[in-house]
Amino acid sequence: MSVLVNKNSKVIVQGFTGSEGSFHAQQMIEYGTNVVGGVTPGKGGSTHLEKPVFNSVEEAVSKTGADTSIIFVPPAFAADAIMEAADAGIKVIIAITEGIPVADMMKAKPYIKERGATLIGPNCPGVITPGEAKVGIMPGFVFKQGRIGIVSKSGTLTYEAADQIVKAGMGVSTAIGIGGDPIIGTSTKDAVQLLMEDPETDAIVMIGEIGGNYEADAARWIRENGNQKPVVGFIAGQTAPPGRRMGHAGAIVGGADDTAIAKMRIMRENGIHVAESPAEIGAVMAKALGVEA
């Protein structure tokens, strides 16, 4: 089992024929992901990367039975693309696009929730279930099959955590890059809950960053639900000066609990094993599971 995506996922690419969509769709296909087609308005009826192109998500769903979409659409149009996917019955929507206007996301988030869809992102690297499906932009070769789930606000640190886990002799069940924008579809807690409920995930790596309260909320939820599985946490931005935005739009300290030190303290208080640096993630996980790294 896995969460969100697997070998049975039928994936379409919105923004299929653009440069980003083309490049990453090709990588996904080569990985073995079941890409069944793509959407570019005005180019319906043609083929691209030997897959059919459709004018709308509704048409793509009716012709292919797609249930998952990945979005490579420019920021000004991306929220509409997200809502179009939800309208067409897509259940897992992964928005790679960075810089979608906050006002647009304030409309899109409740819209897709009402339609029972799960949104990952925006501004995220996607989701990968190693050996089954890569729906995103992550380097697939880093990820090996296993039983450790990864939830991360940082794209690069998702790959680093996977590398650490693999080098420690373990592997990954599903890795979820939730995205770094101020408004995202799936919170750290939501993603952790998915992995907690997955019988083929034995432990979880939770990577956060300064700004916001996602990690604190997740840590408290983990304790309130009995610390069912070992969780290793890491917070990026430990040397960030207060009040300065760092990389992600959401990575800005707004209060005392937004700092890396405060978040690490909250994680420890709630029974999470904290790694002081990303280089320690694999070793801390091995120790938490009582295995030799």
UniProtKB/TrEMBL annotation:
S-adenosyl-L-methionine is among the record's keywords: no
Similarity remark: Belongs to the succinate/malate CoA ligase alpha subunit family.
Reaction catalyzed: GTP + succinate + CoA = succinyl-CoA + GDP + phosphate; succinate + ATP + CoA = succinyl-CoA + ADP + phosphate
Organism for this UniProt entry: Belliella baltica (strain DSM 15883 / CIP 108006 / LMG 21964 / BA134)
GO molecular function: nucleotide binding; succinate-CoA ligase (ADP-forming) activity; succinate-CoA ligase (GDP-forming) activity
Subunit structure: Heterotetramer of two alpha and two beta subunits.
Protein name: Succinate--CoA ligase [ADP-forming] subunit alpha
PANTHER family in alphabetical order: SUCCINATE--COA LIGASE [ADP_GDP-FORMING] SUBUNIT ALPHA, MITOCHONDRIAL (PTHR11117:SF2), SUCCINYL-COA LIGASE SUBUNIT ALPHA (PTHR11117)
One cellular-component annotation, GO: succinate-CoA ligase complex (ADP-forming)
Signal peptide as annotated in the record: none
